[in-house]
Queue: 3 jobs
Job 1
Amino acid sequence: MLIDTIEEICGGFNGRIGLITHNLQTGEEFAYNADDTFPAASTVKLPLLAALMQQVIDGEYSLDDPLMLRRADIVGGSGVTQFLTPGLTMPICDWAFLMMSVSDNTATNILIDQVGLDNVAGWLEAHNFPGIALRHKIDFAVLDQDVNHLGTATPRGLNRL
């Protein structure tokens, strides 16, 4: 059986694995530890983008509205904006594009400030995603001490999202 093969592969892995697949045509699903909670890492960018788009739909602001890069926003890791000059102004849509296309962490933090952590939590609650949480802005000094600091997610929750 498939589950036996997966358990055999995962048995030799030093860590935890969770996965889920969902056939969109038949509705058939295969899950392995799909309801376990894992450190979310960059997957927290998905609910952030969803909450951002909800605010745009609700007319709170436009994707064309400008946001400025401040020195305090800059964080390392992935992305290109960490190398740009503070004071740069780009429309929200460009920050969102960088967050999703190159997993830009600075763009993510700028958008967290725009959307608000409470609003992301509210969007997740309103749309019934109890297994996903974005708790803080990206801060690698803290993440080195607590891998769950940024946020957590379940494979099933991310699959639904």
Note: Residues 35-160 form a domain with the Beta-lactamase fold (CATH 3.40.710.10).
Job 2
Amino acid sequence: MGKVEEVVCSFMNYGPEALPDLTSLKFKKRLSAYLDIYREFLKLSDFIIDSEIGKRTVKCKPGCSFCCNQIIHAYPSELLCINEFLDKQPGIRNSFAEKYPQWDVDFEPFREAFWDSFKQMPTKRAEFRSICREFSSQCPFCDDGVCSIYAVRPMVCRTWFTKRRFTSCNEKNNKDKQLKLSCYEGLHMAQLHLDQYFMEQFEIEGLPLGAFVSTLSHGVFFMNSSSLYIKSLKRKAS
């Protein structure tokens, strides 16, 4: 077991107190060390999810992709990891840039209500879920039903599965088809802890974690570079 793997296993077993202090490192090394930890967390998360899915009846299959038409949110760690991936995949970034404008146009009628309900969670949870169900526009990273950033997709995507035939996901006024995983709450809480850890390591203080959440599409579109993104978070918090 490598050092980073040991760190992540300790984190999952004992909580954020097991994570190392990175603040003495220069910016680039600090970011690299943090992303190493985050990528290892994704690997372990996939193992945990796959272990449970292997024992459940799941109807998802490659190409169905209806869940990719919903509003997908992302945390800073996820956006940084995706941005690093896109730096090495310019073709995927260019494809995203071509599709993003239409997605943003589709999002416009929902923009104000979406963020209002999100900021007042859990009080407006029902309204938030209603907006997410009503919105329908394919994620700019979806190419012919396949996720072009699958290896670094957000946690909300990793933990979304359907328990009925996948075609029923597209039926209007139908009940929620999501298969609730027993590992769901634990993994999402771990995600929150890692984002809190990220903010501490980069000295971003002053706002609750939820204030840094973005839609996946907006977060990627407005991120010029990881360093500028982190600086923008600091300005927002100050």
Note: Residues 3-15+24-237 form one domain.
Job 3
Amino acid sequence: MTENIVLKRVRLFSKKSKLIEEIDLISKAKKGSDKAFEELINIYKEYLYKMAFIYTKNEHDALDIYQETVYKIYLNIDKLKDSSYFKTWITRILINNVNMKKRHVNRFKYVEVEYL
């Protein structure tokens, strides 16, 4: 019983320390640290790719969406208001990129033309 309480406290402490470390990386990335930005992306790269693949169901499109998302995160990280919402923010950027790609594809659908 005591072991369970200790394990729960250790997990809670571990989660809090990871969150603090992540917020510190976000702060450094906002100030222009490329190294901090790279570390942040390394934390979330698998998550971003999996989300992109879930939405696109295509490896090539998922990679395109992933790259565009990372690029937009890099350009706009200074606009993030609350660092504790970083994951939500990057997810929204990814979903917006998916929607833009779908609109672009739908805009240029092939239409069969009858020859005279």
Note: DSSP finds four helices and no strands in the chain.
